[in-house]
């Protein structure tokens, strides 16, 4: 997945939230201290991906509860999640475009069918009829809840 951190950061900053921490940009196996070790040549795509895409929301002792709530609200907005989901969808054969409705339940990240028409969790977000249709296709109701 290509790094989308800047898009996420811009989305949050437009809403008054600045990311902090700005620390884990380089995976440990790529740090100078490990350049002469076996770790330096390790192929760790998930680790590389995480370092390209993670964000650190504000976290410090003086942060008020209201501020925490606001940060959570911003990071829960479909537009924020859609930026990340679009990156996942563009790089994975298991995922297709995520409809924004998927983000109402946030369960869609938990299965390989996430965002696809046959995903019961995503259908749950759309409407009851779509969920029943997904169930007829053999999806387990318990997985959709």
TrEMBL record:
SUPFAM superfamilies linked to this entry? PLP-dependent transferases (SSF53383)
User: Which organism encodes this protein?
Assistant: Symbiodinium natans
Name listed for the protein in its UniProt record: XYL2 protein
Pfam families, A to Z: DegT_DnrJ_EryC1
TM helices/strands, residue ranges: none
Q: Which InterPro entries match?
A: DegT/StrS_aminotransferase, PyrdxlP-dep_Trfase, PyrdxlP-dep_Trfase_small
